[in-house]
Write a structure and sequence with these properties.
By secondary structure, the chain is an alpha/beta fold. The chain is built from 14 helices and 13 strands. The chain has helices spanning 15-30, 37-49, 63-74, 90-93, 127-130, 132-139, 174-177, 191-202, 221-231, 238-252, 263-279, 287-298, 306-310, 315-324; strands at residues 2-3, 12-13, 53-56, 78-82, 94-98, 105-109, 116-120, 141-144, 147-150, 156-161, 182-185, 257-259, 303-304. The strands form 5 sheets. Strands 4-7-10-3-11 form a 5-stranded parallel beta sheet. Helix 10 crosses helix 11 (263-279).
Length: 330
């Protein structure tokens, strides 16, 4: 079922139909990926907000498989870039090359010209190359040789980093961390989930062939666009907006933090909460929506004081304490 308007000749997907299709994506992804439901939800929320995701997990927790399966369920294009110390900015954005037939310079698109970009082990490449993603993430375009070129829509960067091996890595600067809408942590699956993974592999599952696992496209770019438009109409009461602001201000007043949540972080929490509310079928945001998205949206934006790091303070615990100190609106 679609609707058209006189202003836009492109068919528009009904909001309810878009929600149903995007919700069905989780079922499709579960055919290939076991035990990472929270990560799938986080990626969908980021898509609905036009944001980006930082994925953290030890090797072997299906980060690459998750993004590839999500792209297959959404019928969008995906590309993967393995970040290494010798990767140059032009290897991501694209560069000007000489056309051998015409003898003129022409632009050759880099892997960033896709819908879902998997930036694997982003902390293994120097800051100069990391920053090549900044314009793409923030503006939805890249500038090469003085010309700005728009990226496809939707566009999402899913960047991964390894939390257990820091030798030879370049920690992401705060400015780039702040560009990620949310951070999702992919845990080691529980025993029953790990047994299910082994059962699937024993029966012939091939991680390189998601279609062989029965994954089919159940949604598309038009559904994402319809969802993004619908999310902007989700109501946020003054009390819930005040709750978000008070959470952000509580982190700035924490004695354990040198860097609290910025206004950009507060707006990110607002956007993520609206997207989640719409995804579960509501047209208004509740305080529970805010609380459920707070850690994923804010924890990577916080910076510990050196003395707190020496004492082994966990930034997630500090955020939990700040959340607990803010009265929940009724």
């Amino acid at each position: 079922m679609t609707e058209t308007t006189s202003e836009d000749a492109v068919p528009r997907v009904d909001d309810e139909r878009a929600r149903e299709r995007l919700s069905a994506v989780r079922t499709e992804v579960a055919k290939a990926v076991v035990g990472q439901d929270a990560a799938v939800s986080g990626l969908l929320v980021a898509l609905l907000c036009g944001g980006h995701v930082l994925m953290e997990g030890v090797p072997g927790t299906a980060k690459t498989l998750l993004v590839r399966t999500l792209a297959a369920a959404l019928s969008v294009e995906t590309r993967r870039v393995q970040f290494t110390p010798d990767l140059m900015p032009g290897d991501i954005t694209g560069s000007m090359v000489i056309d051998s037939h015409q003898g003129q310079l022409s632009f050759r698109e880099g892997p960033v010209f896709t819908n879902l970009l998997l930036a694997d082990e982003i902390n293994r490449t120097p800051p100069k190359t990391q920053s090549a993603l900044l314009e793409a993430m923030e503006e939805g375009q890249v500038s090469v040789d003085g010309v700005s070129r728009a990226l496809p829509r939707p566009f999402l960067v899913a960047a991964t980093q390894n939390p257990v091996e820091y030798e030879g890595t370049y920690p992401l600067p705060e400015a780039q961390l702040d560009r990620f809408l949310i951070k999702v942590v992919l845990p080691i699956p529980q025993r029953e989930q790990e047994l299910e993974i082994l059962r699937r592999h024993a029966s012939g599952f091939d991680p390189r062939d998601v279609s062989g696992a029965g994954v089919t496209a159940v949604a598309g770019a038009s559904d994402i666009a319809a969802g993004q438009a619908a999310v902007t109409k989700v109501q946020v009461s003054p009390e819930v907006a005040g709750y978000i602001v008070d959470i952000a201000r509580a982190t700035r007043e924490s004695p354990s933090l040198s860097l609290g949540v910025s206004p950009r972080g507060a707006t990110a929490l607002l956007r993520a909460s609206r997207a989640w509310a719409w995804l579960v079928g509501r047209d208004f945001v509740t305080p529970d929506d805010v609380k459920s998205l707070a850690h994923a949206t804010l924890v990577h934006r916080l910076g510990l004081r050196p003395e707190a790091e020496l004492e082994g303070v966990d930034v997630a615990q500090v955020l939990a304490s700040a959340l607990g100190s803010v009265p929940v609106p009724r």
